[in-house]
Amino acid sequence: MTIFQGVHFYLHPEILPEVQNTLRQSITELGGQVDGNVPDRGYVLADLHNPESQRAFQLFSAERWVVPLTFVEACKTAGAHIAPIFLESEGRPMPIHVHESIANVKFRELLYEKILYCAGFPYASLESARVIMADSKTDVFNALVKHYQLTPHKYIESLEWVDKCIERQGVFFTPHVFKNPGGRRAGEERTQFTEEDEQKLCEWIAAKIPFKSTGGRTGNKLYQQLCEMSNHPEYSWVTRHTWQSWRERYKKNAGRLDKIVDKIVSTTKPSQGEKWQYGYVRQDDDKPKKKRKRLSKHEDGQEFVVGSSGTGHESVHPDPHVAANSSLGQLAGILRLAPPVNREDEWRIRDGHDPPPAWAKSRGSNELEEGPNVECAKSEEPPAISDDTLQLAITVAVAGHVLEQELSEIALQTRFTVEEVREYYDKYGGDLERTSRRLQKMREHLNAFSDDD
Which pLDDT band holds residue 450 (cuts at 50, 70, 90)? Predict the structure, then answer.
């Protein structure tokens, strides 16, 4: 195996002699070459777990990479030369911070090694790191995403990010997707605007919404966000006006200010969807798809929800939101007690020479003389409720309730009515994910129209 064919190595002097001998032998067997001096292009092997040896990173250059001692064995195990991919544009190692919320020591060490193998620097501080790695299943991860959302050139990535980059042999960051900023509200000017104010406002708009086709420029949040930047020294000027005034200034002069924005954009030439742009947020990590409950058919042709049971004589509609209504009615009917029986004949008495009532004919003469034995009529027993029938009704009712919640959530996210969502849900044969994607796409198309269309 010659995976290091033509590759030069330099062994850091602080490595123990016996370890150096082992490394020389392994590198030679794999087709590599060990130099006595630091090569212009190649690898510097050092014990990077030792803080003292981390000074070897000073030898890092655009074509010379510092890696740990285990790099040779890792390449041998992988059967390939592990490429240096975690690099900045100028060839320096990419600063990466492994957040302390990842408490498993062995897992942290494994991440360090993988990053070092690929020429990255996993010991960067939280402030200096280009990438911050944290567990996406924790509240810490969401807090980091929210905190650094407006910080350019800083990314929050999950634990799987390193392996994905190695698999693709290149660095990529989780993309940002457009999220509709929301409603509008009129503002007012309180301080006289200057040409400098307008120029800075246009620069802000050009950075956040360079392309007007992605959304209007009069949303409240765009200007609220501008005023939130007042803590940064370079944005101290925003305190001259309220966010309502900044918004109103643009709104009243949109035609003129849009030309200034377009001129700035033609100079900076940003790409649509860059991290700093307004309305683009970090894409959520992939979530497992929800499996719909399938319907199984009973031998006699009646359909039942899987997991429930029935007598075989009851028919359940396969559509959950229809079945829910019918089943709730059945359940109410089953649980309603029958009213007490009140037969008027049982209370009749003999009137004059009329024949005696029926109840008197079945009693003895003594009872006839004494009159009927008046008793409260016994109520008939309510119909018996089988466990299977009750479980069926409850299961279908719950399924219908869950479906209504899902449809309401899609309606809230896409800003369509629940009736419209249900119409597409029925059209697509009960596929919630397809319904959600379709309506989301329709909403994006609607948002793409300008106010003048």
Answer: low
Cβ–Cβ < 8 Å for 122, 111:
yes
**pLDDT averaged over the chain?**
78
Gap between the Cα atoms of 66 and 60, Å rounded: 6
CA distance 148 to 140: 12
Tens digit of each residue's pLDDT (9 = 90 or more) over 1-40: 688 998 999 998 888 899 999 999 999 999 999 998 988 8
- Residue by residue, DSSP assigns 201-216 as HHHHHHHH-S-GGGS-
Spatial CA neighbour of 32 closest among 57, 2, 10, 63: 2
pTM: 0.43
pLDDT value for 448:
80
Closest CA to 94 of 86, 102, 84: 86
Query: Position of tokens 């596929």?
Result: 431
Q: How many CB atoms lie within 10 A of CB 396?
A: 25
CA distance 391 to 386: 9
Instruction: Between 422 and 318, name the one with better pLDDT.
Output: 422
Long-range contacts of 219-228 (CB under 8 A, 24+ apart): 219/181, 219/182, 219/183, 219/184, 220/181, 220/182, 220/183, 220/184, 220/185, 220/247, 221/181, 221/182, 221/278, 222/181, 222/247, 222/278, 223/187, 223/247, 223/250, 225/150, 225/278, 226/201
Kindly report, residue by residue over 49-81, the tens digit of the pLDDT.
766 666 777 777 888 888 988 999 999 998 899
- Number of alpha carbons in the 13 Å side-chain half-sphere of residue 280: 19
How far, in Å, CA of 227 to CA of 224, rounded? Answer: 5
Do 196 and 297 meet the contact criterion of CB atoms below 8 Å apart? no
- Per the listing, tokens 């209370």 go with 347
Per-residue CA distances from 136 to 54, 120, 144, 177, 442 (Å) = 30, 21, 10, 18, 30
Q: Take residue 313 and report the two structure tokens written for it.
A: 């004589």
